[in-house]
Amino acid sequence: MLGIDFDPLITSGAVGVLATVLQAVFDQPRFTATHRRLIALGLGLVLSVVIWWAGAYPASWQLIATQASVVIASAAAAFTILKQVGVIDWIGHVTPGGEAYTPKHREGDAD
User: Fold this and answer.
1) How many CA atoms lie within 13 A of 7 on its CB side?
2) Per-residue pLDDT at 111
3) How many secondary structure helices (H) and strands (E) does the chain include?
4) Statement: residue 84 has pLDDT above 90
5) Is the pLDDT of residue 48 over 70?
6) How crowded is residue 13: how many other Cβ atoms within 10 Å of its Cβ?
């Protein structure tokens, strides 16, 4: 353990938001919805263990479970908000491996 003195719950919330953005960056069009959910859950569990390892609190399954819950819940909330605002779609368009952007109305198209 590194013994860094920080509040693990606030850190877990912030990391959950960042995890959503990271997942959007590395997302691939071929991933299914189930695949994306499993990646999000796995990332949440790994990040919660990293937060515990960097902190100064003793190991307990309750602390790790709480941190994992906060990371996953904040990632889900951040995804919902960022998806509605359009940030997740924008990240998918500007990062390699994302879906190619096709404008909804092209020049010369008459409706």
Assistant:
1) 5
2) 54
3) 4, 0
4) yes
5) yes
6) 18
